[in-house]
Amino acid sequence: NTQKIIVIPGDGIGPEVTEEAVLTLQALGAGLEFTFLDRINADRYLRDGVALTDGELEEVRTAGTVLFGAVGDPRVTNPDYARGVLLRLRTDLDLYVNYRPAVLLDERLSPLRDESRRGIDCVVVRENTEGLYTGVGGSLRTGTPDEVTVDQETNTHLGVSRIVEYAYGVARRSVCMVDKSNAVRFGGQLWQRVWRETRDRHPELDSSHLYVDVAAMKLVKDPASFDVIVTNNSYGDILSDLTAELAGGLGTAASANINPVTGMGLYEPVHGSAPDIVGKGLANPAGAVLSAALLLRDRGLKSEAEALERAVRRTVAERRCTPDLGGTLNTRQAGEAIRAALD
Ligand code: NAI
Ligand code: MG
């Protein structure tokens, strides 16, 4: 009963961290079969102008599960490349949930001075298919001093309803809905209305609402008070980098792009291709490995997922990790330490 996983390592440190994630999954012996689509990268885009082919998209659709590194390259300035790979996968596979957990890996990694407030254990549930990132908009008199640009924010009743409902479905204690409905009028009202209706159907959970600016402030002031945060695409993007840093740093943050109805999923570290550290062995593989743990969980391999998470936690506690977490190991050694810590 082997499950087929498509691996898209991508650019920069993407291949470095993804390789450690794959080796770690293989060490677990979870019966997964890997197909590498490593031709999807900036080199090919620069050469042929191709981001993702229809054939590749169908291959991914058939397999249904993707382990993804990162895309982005300083030589590529056209946003069509990253949009054509990652945003296209998210949109065309309708992966409408971006699930981004943030659990403090180790006390000493918290950037907060006040010890009593450090214990973050929350999930940002980010809407992943609409909002500000659909590419709807335009530019007039481009490149002139009279240039005018518009990027429109799309919010549909279906899109907002399903993400808010998902958030309530995975919450343990509470759901905090984050928007900017005091300034963004129409989408704001839609989020407010849908959220109130969903909240009333879930009296078993605590519900609250914060404007995004206040949410950012409160995350720093009292991160332990949050359980599930549900928000739109752009606010979720930004707040999840903040929660990642509060939990131990961008190098450790994992994410799942999923469609809970079809069961399709794309699993990737929250960080990007980090061109500033590529090839130096400085890339922390923890975010990629913990993303693989989210993949295992969604494929019904809960005990394997927990074994991975324990192993990462253990290595960080013993400082057998990369320099961003206070260790001295390189990417490969940090991956090996995680594999050695598997029980
Ligand atoms: P980034 O996440 O790549 O890097 C931000 C900072 O964090 C850098 O200083 C980097 O060295 C550090 N960092 C990131 N991952 C790390 C790791 N695993 N271990 C240790 N340090 C790590 O974000 P940046 O610099 O804004 O973007 C670089 C490229 O990545 C751009 O082309 C961007 O578009 C792309 N990107 C791609 C994403 C994706 O594929 N999902 C997500 C975010 C950015
Ligand atoms: Mg981001």
UniProtKB/TrEMBL annotation:
GO terms for molecular function: metal ion binding; oxidoreductase activity. Its cofactor is Mn(2+); Mg(2+). Residues 4-338 form the Isopropylmalate dehydrogenase-like domain. Gene3D superfamilies: Isopropylmalate Dehydrogenase. InterPro entries: ICDH/IPMDH, IsoPropMal-DH-like_dom. It holds the Pfam family Iso_dh. Keywords: Manganese, Metal-binding, NAD, Oxidoreductase. This is Dehydrogenase.
